[in-house]
Amino acid sequence: MMFLIPFVGSAQDAEVPPVQVDSTWLFKSILPADGIPVDSALANASGMHGVAVDGDGKIWLQPYAATEEIVLAGGDGTPVPTRALYIYNADGTPADFSPLTVFEYADGTTDTVGHYFHSHGRDEGGWEGMSGRGLRADDDGNIIVSTGGVIYRISKDGVGLNKFPYLGTDGKMDSPTAAAVDGAGNVYIAPVVPGANSLIKLPKDFSPDTEPEVILAATPGYSRTFDVSSDGNTIYWTGYSNGMVHIYSRDDEFSPFDPAVYDSIPGLASESITFQPETGYLWISGGSTFSPATDGYQNQTWYAFDPSDFSNPLESITWNGDAMDNTEIGAGQGRPRGLAFSSDGKTAYVVQFNEAILAAQVFTSGATSTSIEPEVKELPNSISLSQNYPNPFNPTTTIKFELQVGSDVTLEVFDVSGRKVATLVETRLNAGQHFAVFDASTLSSGVYFYRLRAGNMMMTKSMTLIK
Question: Which of 96, 238, 260, 397 has its CA 20 to 30 A from that of 375?
Fold first, then answer.
């Protein structure tokens, strides 16, 4: 049985209004402020592939391509390009062990996040370079690192804990997605390419000799990540080439998943997904110009859902294209590839692939980052305030509102500091639908709030100006 949640139309078609949310998050900064420095000889404008927050609150970033150099054991002593992990304290300063290229296990042996020496090479074995494929924090706050062929667990202090070679059906190194982790610390891995491998489950103490449990023999569509519920009985499969999220469920851990039975959330060509601490919301990215979002969802935007009701998203985060110069690749070409939260769920870190600057963008919850007074609960059906369209916008947007009875109405716009920047309506209006156009030609890019007052009722929503 397949259950489709009813959305209609295409988000990229101007005839279809965007999906509405209750609040949007506020852009705060870039991490690191000037981007990860890369030697010009290694520069590869391919962007980021992973972000995670460890148990100490440090932010881990994973570029896709090589950004550092190391000397390989048994080589001729010539430094070779390698992938690396970059770790930052919550205040933005680098951690003592960042960048992480070579790390040590408790027994004193060493390993690297960018190369792996093995007999399962795509050619004839030996040292093989591995691209960054995604990050995920586990139940203990350590980091599960997906690379182009090997899965690692690295402690929040930079010490190696576990590794597992992810091999395809041909016995060669395969390309895995970012991991998913359930509440017991079990690790789930799947292939990027549909049909190339199985979705597998590894125990918390996995090793190179672990025999994985096959959860789904094959997965539909190209994917970069997915997630699982805490009990491991629900899989949220984000195959971006499917244009929807598949939701597989089973009764208990002893029952198999049926790949032919799933619910779905259409319109989301998602490449990143994660649960938010404290709220329990499931955040899912919309899409990109490569695989566009549809059905009212927007590209380069992440949406928060209550897992008990996927009919409407509650909050959103939209990539700030003005904050990072991407002219080398092309404005708006980034692909949402990672999202992670601080432990209190109030700060979000997002990364995109196909970005010239290697960095995360930092957002804070709109509910706690503005001096605008909170929305006052109105009487049922007395007024309604729609999300502005288009949103984001430049420089004009239309705001629709509806009155059930004639009222004295004001519609005002404020910036994030609470300063009023425009009064759009200040008059008495009859019952019915009304529209107001906001022209932000003289204002700077950023998040603004529009507030509707009608009699003793009030509603507030946010909108994003991107120039």
Answer: 397
CA distance 348 to 269: 20
- Cis link prior to 390 (omega < 30° from 0)? yes
Domain shared by 11 and 105, yes or no? yes
In a domain, 373, yes or no: no
CA separation, residue 257 to residues 176, 199, 227, 350 (Å): 20, 11, 15, 31
Pick the last residue of a domain from 312, 334, 368.
368
Per the confidence metrics, is the pTM higher than 0.85?
no
- Residue 12, domain extent: 2-368
Two tokens at 135?
A: 């990050």
Count the alpha carbons within 13 Å of 212 in the hemisphere toward its beta carbon.
Answer: 23
CATH of the domain at 200: 2.120.10.30
Pair (361, 402) in one structural domain: no
107-132: pLDDT as tens digits: 999 999 987 655 544 455 556 678 88
